[in-house]
């Protein structure tokens, strides 16, 4: 199984889209996904970057390592998609990802937050 690490901004977890029931189902689905052995789910808290740069401010990105160990970055800005393979550019995005990850909650804290938002009792 491929290893998957996802960082979700807390604002996306709190923004109700489609109604309360749909939002709760989506949050519970994230809880189930986070229980998979190949998935790490982290939440970037609302106060991330409060005392410095908010590394997630530049939008979403997907970092990929292929089976041939090639490193790529996939972006979807506005109405297009970009696949970046230039090692220098990939390195810049990897550094940004590391900064975002350093500002995120740990896996247990992230899961606890998602459960709380879904209204799941511990």
From TrEMBL:
It holds the Pfam family DUF5753. Residues 3-116 form the DUF5753 domain. This is Transcriptional regulator. It comes from Streptomyces sp. SID7499.
